[in-house]
Amino acid sequence: MLETPVVSNNERDFILKGILSIIKEVVTAQQFEIWFSCLRVSSVTSNRITFVTPNSFIREWLKSHYHDLFSSAVYKVLNSSREVHFSTEEEVFDKLSATSFPPEEFFAGKKPPEENYHVPLNKYYSFENFVVGPCNRLAHAAAFAVSETPGLAYNPLFIHGASGLGKTHLLHAINNVLSSKHKMKTLYVPCERFVNHYISTIRTNSWDSFRAFYRNIDALLIDDIQAFENSQESREEFFHTFNTLYNAKKQIVITSDCPPELIATLEDRLISRFKWGLLCSIDNTTRETRIAIAEKKASLWGINLSHEAASYLAENVTGSIRELEGAIARLSREEKITKNSITLDRMRKIVWELSGNKRYISIETVIKAVSERFNIRVSQLQSRCRTRSLALPRQIAMHLSRKLTKMSLMEIGGYLGGRDHSTVIHADEKITKMLKKDKNLSIILQKLESELQK
């Protein structure tokens, strides 16, 4: 059963202002700007207050570091205790979308409040906090140029790349500069939210309000536009919104997990418009960039991470940057609870736990399995010999060792002929590419992995 809010929107704003003024006296100005200034209160009931954060990264950080401070501040402002709950904008919106409205409200023409479709700025996502490397240099430069000369540099700007590589970070960074430096009216919105808002508007028939919300702005930043794939009518509406903004020389920035021509069902007229400006990609991060990101994120969390520890983290948390952030959040909680600095041994254990207690295999076992499969001696795999008959098995051994063992790149290279980390990276990338094209090799590696993990 849902709890009924006991305060109005204006009262929520007043309560939030009082709570933040108390917190501001305790934390530094920089901490307040990054972590607290982006908050809002979504509801206050008789026994709970819910704070909304832009993303799960900030939500988890506030829960683990400042829950007691929030509880104390809430008590001082409300003169009674409340359960402090943290949620994200996405969670709040999903809950809103799942709400069933009574039919009579539709016929009465009542519309959902537009504020529910507006995502607040996340000051943590700034250009200063974005780590630039070969994989994202063009996208970063283009985003920065757009933030400095909106509507002139690249319009539209279309950034594509896999999930978790920094596209949303750049959108928020642009948004921050446009709204704070240029005092522009901006709107950042995930594409799925646009689609859901469109569906809600069909129910309420409040088209004037809907169109004013998306068109009476100076800049539109829309995230994950591939969500339009299964929504033809909302694509039609977006087409006209795009034209209105573009003709008025308003800045448009779009992100996607793939180039526009690869988005299924996307009409040619939209594809051509997305190419009017600049298309740029964000590629998978290199080892060096991941290490720099790990060090930067750790610094923002107040963790003194050694270069060796950052290297281990970057090499062994091989998923997206969000997963790397999650690992660092876990390290921060660990450091706070134990009051001890994070050692490399402790980090190994944490990474192992985050992997779902995955059973790691020794590199000796991997090398032996590869040597038996290709009928060559272990000593040959570990030699400096570079003949073609040994190159592929050695690269497979490096690929499997990186995937299945806890060894660092340097350690893997050392075991296989004293090679450096760049050789291991090259071997891993080469085998990964070959697996997409060579079915026989894919079957061989599947059998090897299956045998090793028994």
Automatic annotation (TrEMBL):
Domain Chromosomal replication initiator DnaA C-terminal: from-to ranges: 362-431
Subcellular compartments: Cytoplasm
Superkingdom classification of source: Bacteria
InterPro entries: AAA+_ATPase (IPR003593), Chromosome_initiator_DnaA (IPR001957), Chromosome_initiator_DnaA-like (IPR020591), Chromosome_initiator_DnaA_CS (IPR018312), DnaA_C (IPR013159), DnaA_dom (IPR013317), DnaA_N_dom (IPR024633), DnaA_N_sf (IPR038454)
GO CC terms: cytoplasm; plasma membrane
Limits of the AAA+ ATPase domain: 153-275
Start and end residues of each stretch annotated as Domain I, interacts with DnaA modulators: 1-91
Segments crossing the lipid bilayer: none
The entry's keywords: ATP-binding, Coiled coil, Cytoplasm, DNA replication, DNA-binding, Lipid-binding, Nucleotide-binding
Any one GO biological process: DNA replication initiation
Domain observations: Domain I is involved in oligomerization and binding regulators, domain II is flexibile and of varying length in different bacteria, domain III forms the AAA+ region, while domain IV binds dsDNA.
Subunit (UniProt): Oligomerizes as a right-handed, spiral filament on DNA at oriC.
Protein task: Plays an essential role in the initiation and regulation of chromosomal replication. ATP-DnaA binds to the origin of replication (oriC) to initiate formation of the DNA replication initiation complex once per cell cycle. Binds the DnaA box (a 9 base pair repeat at the origin) and separates the double-stranded (ds)DNA. Forms a right-handed helical filament on oriC DNA; dsDNA binds to the exterior of the filament while single-stranded (ss)DNA is stabiized in the filament's interior.
Family according to the record: Belongs to the DnaA family.
Name under which the protein is recorded: Chromosomal replication initiator protein DnaA
Organism lineage: Bacteria, Pseudomonadati, Planctomycetota, Candidatus Brocadiia, Candidatus Brocadiales
